[in-house]
Write a structure and sequence with these properties.
Helices cover 40% and strands 15% of the residues. It is built from eleven helices and seven strands.
Length: 379
């Protein structure tokens, strides 16, 4: 019997939908850079670790490959990621077929075409309409949407061959309860994130992240076939740095200061600000590795910093940086504070960023993205 935990509904915080100026579709070049940079690594992973024969025969349907992109949002990045994966699997398939034909008199080996089924997953409130209106018309796969939190179960047992998740696992299933409790040592009064907060706040976030990652890994272990692969692109903070040393951490702190300023002016209540925290956490490589190793169902085949040569070009000016953050956080902020303060909030944020030399200096973009390749163990 499945545990209740597997079907709990996590807090929903999708990216801005539609095609407007603040939409994720128009403001996700930064995330796209990671997908582009990971293409060769994904191909290497599949060529080296994807067992076509064993994997195809281990699922319920022969000669069909099932893959999922978790946290797909509204496109177009998810389509690029899927295309990269499918091209790599097809290349592996052709290499295997050629090898068998070279070493066998049976020329019928691998002659049956493979069907690809792709599952696009995100929260229930994700703009799936925009996603599916944007599906590539020349795609060579069947497409389906799977709404729900990836922190729990989404698919039947042993039904997936490949899982991809990019720029999503830094989102928590919920804000740690301690940081919003005025009686707790971890109460995060006057801040909306753990950047520059006390150690109790940081620990509360870290503990929540570990719990969520373990839940994610447990669910995927049940859904992946033995030998199935999972590629994770996870925003992180280098082991030697603090969150306040990175733009990811500092921009959240700056946004929080704008809300505090607005509370002082009576534009929003102080209580409303104190009851809001962002459900996001950026782990360090060593922290993430330790969490993955606690789940014995996966082996870490590769884990390293993603080399993204276009990183400094994806947010070249002030407006793009503000729009990028607004596309990601506006839905969450609007749900808590209301739509009427959004323009004021991001105008203030824009002015503070403009007054700072920190954000637009490429040398200060010290956040990293980790490329993590996991393989489902037989156990």
């Amino acid at each position: 019997m499945e545990s209740k935990r597997n079907y709990e509904v996590a807090d929903s915080h999708p990216m801005n939908g539609g095609q407007g100026p603040y939409s994720y579709v128009q403001n996700s070049n930064y995330q796209r850079g990671a997908v582009e940079a990971s293409k060769e690594m994904i191909e290497e992973a599949i060529i080296k670790h994807f067992d076509v024969n064993k994997t195809l025969n281990s699922a319920s349907f022969l000669n069909q490959i099932f893959l999922a992109d978790l946290g797909c949002s509204t496109g177009p990045n998810t389509f690029l990621a899927v295309q990269n994966i499918l091209e790599a699997i097809q290349l592996k398939y052709q290499l295997e077929k050629r090898r068998h034909l070279d070493h066998s008199d049976d020329h019928h080996v691998h002659q049956i075409p493979v069907t690809f089924q792709v599952f696009f997953n995100d929260h229930f409130s994700n703009d799936f309409n925009t996603l599916f209106r944007s599906l590539p018309p020349t795609r060579k796969y069947l497409a389906a949407g799977v709404p729900g939190s990836f922190h729990g179960r989404l698919f039947p047992n042993s039904s997936l061959h490949f899982v991809h998740c990019s720029y999503s696992l830094h989102w928590l299933s919920k804000v740690p309860s301690q940081v919003m409790d005025s009686t707790s040592p971890a109460w995060n009064k006057g801040r909306i994130h753990y950047t520059n907060a006390g150690k109790e706040v940081v620990k509360a976030y870290s503990d929540q992240y570990a719990e969520d990652m373990l839940s994610f890994l447990h669910a995927r272990a049940e859904e992946l076939v033995v030998g199935g692969l999972m590629v994770l692109l996870i925003p992180a903070v280098p082991d030697i740095l603090l969150p306040s040393d990175t733009t990811n951490g500092t921009e959240k702190d700056l946004l929080g200061s704008c809300l505090v300023d607005m509370a002082k002016m009576g534009l929003v209540s102080e209580e409303r600000v104190d009851s809001f925290n962002l459900p996001m956490y950026y782990s360090s490589p060593s922290e993430l590795k330790a969490i993955i190793e606690r789940n014995e169902h996966f082996s870490i085949e590769r884990m390293e910093k993603l080399n993204n040569p276009k990183k400094h070009l994806s947010l070249p000016n002030l407006q793009m940086r503000v729009y990028y953050l607004r596309a990601a956080l506006e839905g969450l902020l609007q749900k808590h504070f209301g739509a009427e303060i959004m323009d004021e909030l991001f105008n203030r944020f824009s002015k503070k960023v403009a007054e700072s030399t920190f954000f637009l200096n490429p040398q200060n973009q010290k956040s990293i993205v980790l490329f993590v390749l996991l393989k489902r163990n037989p156990n």
